Amino acid sequence: MSPAVFSHGDLRLYLLSLLSESPQHGYGIIQALTDRTGGTYTPSAGTIYPRLAKLEEEGLVTKTVDGRTTIYSITDAGRAELSAREGDLAGIESDLADSVRLIANEVRQSVQDAMKSLRADLKAAERDERDSAKTRPKSAASDARSASREELHRADAVINAFRARARTDLRTHVARGGSLPASVVTELENALDAAARRVTVALQELSGH
Fold first, then answer.
1. Alpha carbon distance 3, 134 (integer Å)
2. Phi/psi of residue 38, nearest 5 degrees
3. Global confidence as pTM
4. Strand, helix or coil at 107?
5. DSSP state for residue 138 in the 8-state scheme
6. Mean pLDDT (the chain, rounded)
7. Going by C-beta distance under 8 Å and a sequence separation of 6 or more, which residues neighbour residue 80?
8. Which end of the chain is more exposed for a tag (fewer CB within 10 A), N or C?
């Protein structure tokens, strides 16, 4: 998502809205915008800091330096403008939700297209392997290698399908305003780690190690 998702002046008002929730440093604001858009829009420092400087110049924001970190806070004047433009803010949030939903749908469609292409490539590879196998002398070892290669292709497809589905579900959930607690990500990480260990153990047992 490009900065054009916010029309002229909208990002300025949205920054005030974010700061009305709590004081933030610049990176925190960038991260908040990324989170609110489900990762579809990450503004650059060159986009955010000049706008924060302009808000400070207008007396709508103040900044304090804490060590090497600059913290931005909304002022009473900033809250007053935010209150006066409550209707505008609601419109911005509605448009933003629509944009994120559209991009999420595009991402989901691109994933589906990629999976179709992947499945077609795998089928073509399987056909090529079968055709090639017909011209090779038959042996138990070659049959086993051929079967293993087919299973490897299937494993690749399973892994890629899981990654695409999980990534799309997570991004869509966040884009729709859902929360993503660290516990869920940790659970996902632990489950994947456990699955990887089981695969390693199974392969070691097969190889006799």
1. 56
2. 60, 30
3. 0.47
4. helix
5. P
6. 79
7. none
8. C
